[in-house]
């Protein structure tokens, strides 16, 4: 992953807006490829959740970008903000119990899986990369969680729907995206009284954004050593409640 994602992308948690796959495996082989080229890992803040991730022990971790058959595999990294959100939901199941939960930028699906484990009655994952949908399905199966539906389009520009809780981790990495999320999440809260939880390790783009004036820190967690090594300069990660 040092070459595939680049150190600066890993440090900031940047997700690609490019969702189409490079020329490579047909869709029918995506599941098999993920199974063969990721490692089942519990080396993170939520060892209760087993995830198929790219780790330093996987062949493609140090592979050339042109050897990877898909868009950048952000779904194969358990980002610090997502780890904080998942840990928080597992430790505070009352937040989502019997409610409806939307996980935006779901990636590997950990926060959506944590919501299911914590008793949410309805969970939907959202990620613009269709390969992430396959990864989420595999991770659900790995954790004996019923399949979670995945919406693979950008929904933040559409009319908000009614959700009890919206969670999103590591999404405030770009000013334009952050501004759009700020506005859309505010609409969700004002229209439906939705509870919004944001996971982020304190990246500069998040800390300097105007949304900070409307956030309340719920919990802070020290990052595991392996996550520190993959995210240069980051030592902790937090969950914030958005309260406009």
UniProtKB/TrEMBL annotation:
Keywords: Methyltransferase, Transferase. Pfam families: PrmA (PF06325). It catalyses: L-lysyl-[protein] + 3 S-adenosyl-L-methionine = N(6),N(6),N(6)-trimethyl-L-lysyl-[protein] + 3 S-adenosyl-L-homocysteine + 3 H(+). GO terms for cellular component: mitochondrial matrix. Gene3D superfamilies: Vaccinia Virus protein VP39. The keyword Cell membrane does not apply. GO terms for molecular function: protein-lysine N-methyltransferase activity. InterPro entries: Ribosomal_L11_MeTrfase_PrmA, SAM-dependent_MTases_sf. It comes from the Eukaryota. One of its GO terms (biological process) is methylation. Belongs to the methyltransferase superfamily. ETFBKMT family. This is Electron transfer flavoprotein beta subunit lysine methyltransferase. It comes from Pleurodeles waltl (Iberian ribbed newt).
């Amino acid at each position: 992953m040092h070459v595939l994602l680049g150190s600066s992308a890993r440090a900031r948690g940047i997700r690609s807006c490019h969702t189409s796959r490079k020329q490579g495996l047909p869709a029918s082989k995506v599941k098999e490829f993920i199974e063969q080229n990721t490692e089942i890992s519990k080396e993170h803040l939520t060892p209760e959740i087993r995830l198929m991730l790219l780790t330093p022990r996987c062949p493609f971790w140090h592979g050339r970008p042109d050897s990877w058959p898909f868009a950048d595999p952000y779904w194969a990294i358990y980002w610090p903000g997502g780890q904080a959100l998942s840990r928080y939901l597992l430790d505070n199941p009352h937040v989502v119990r019997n409610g409806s939960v939307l996980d935006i930028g779901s990636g590997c699906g950990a926060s959506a899986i944590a919501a299911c484990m914590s008793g949410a009655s309805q969970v939907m994952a959202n990620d613009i990369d269709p390969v992430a949908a396959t990864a989420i399905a595999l991770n659900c199966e790995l954790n004996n969680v019923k399949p979670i539906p995945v919406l693979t389009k950008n929904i933040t520009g559409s009319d908000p729907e009614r959700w009890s809780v919206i969670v999103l981790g590591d999404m405030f990495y770009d000013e334009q995206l952050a501004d759009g999320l700020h506005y859309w999440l505010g609409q969700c809260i004002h229209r439906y009284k939705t509870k919004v939880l944001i996971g982020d390790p304190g990246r500069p783009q998040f800390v300097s954004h105007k949304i900070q004036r409307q956030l309340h820190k719920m919990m802070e967690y020290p990052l595991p050593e392996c996550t520190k090594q993959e995210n240069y300069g980051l030592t902790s990660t937090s969950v914030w409640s958005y309260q406009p």
